[in-house]
Amino acid sequence: MQASTPNDPKILIALDFADQQQAMALIAQLDPASCRLKVGKEMFTLFGPEFVRTLVKAGFDVFLDLKFHDIPNTVAKAVAAAAELGVWMVNVHASGGLRMMTAAREALLPYGEQAPLLIAVTVLTSMTDDELAQVGVLRSPAEQVLALARLTRDAGLDGVVCSAQEASLLKAELGHHFKLITPGIRPAGSDAGDQRRIMTPEQALAAGSDYLVIGRPITQAANPAQALADINNSLRQG
Ligand SMILES: O=c1ccn([C@@H]2O[C@H](COP(=O)(O)O)[C@@H](O)[C@H]2O)c(=O)[nH]1
Known about the structure:
Blueprint: E1 11-15, H1 20-27, E2 36-39, H2 41-57, E3 62-68, H3 72-84, E4 89-93, H4 98-107, E5 117-121, H5 129-134, H6 141-154, E6 159-161, H7 167-174, E7 179-182, H8 201-207, E8 211-214, H9 216-219, H10 224-237
Parallel strand pairs: 1-2, 1-8, 2-3, 3-4, 4-5, 5-6, 6-7, 7-8
Helix pairs in contact: 3-4, 6-7
The structure holds ligand LLZGTKA7.
């Protein structure tokens, strides 16, 4: 799967904007050496693949966070379409199962070294024990994350999306090379919003997160470029 850029920025900024010009104004202040960008359902639905191509052309590593969850054939075709866009990372839902994830991985084989990293979402960082129970999952979030991460590893994917609260458990159980991408990152004192299983950037890195997904604490800051620089500095010091 695709190699990381040499300096390997840890922060993936979640671009969740309804206005493309606002997103572009932020991106104009960013350096691809200090962050990567995440495009999710809102911006992809509004602005489509052309927006992703623009970011790739501007030199950014792009995580296309569309969380595919469908029958194996459909998901395989969707991840191949993502590879055609030149993205750095793409994801599926682990709860789609082993056969679906295997089909997704096999669809990327023709891309060789150029293939995006392929990861799977375990349990959304907004979810609590009670909410898992409401959808029929009686395990704790950590138990469910571990079970889905094992399934993801068995399908040969590169890693998972989980909360940083589960990072040390997953690193111990699945090893150093299995990548952990953790949203639900909140610098000390910032608003959790709809997130529930949260950690600070410094705690998350120390717990074993490979990449930190950070949206609103950067994008809604008075000075987003400074907010990014502050977090990068505190991670370097840690
Ligand atoms: O479990 C998950 C999976 C994906 N996300 C996405 O990450 C960002 C987080 O944004 P914040 O503003 O920092 O809360 C957002 O795009 C989610 O769709 C997640 O939060 N949790």
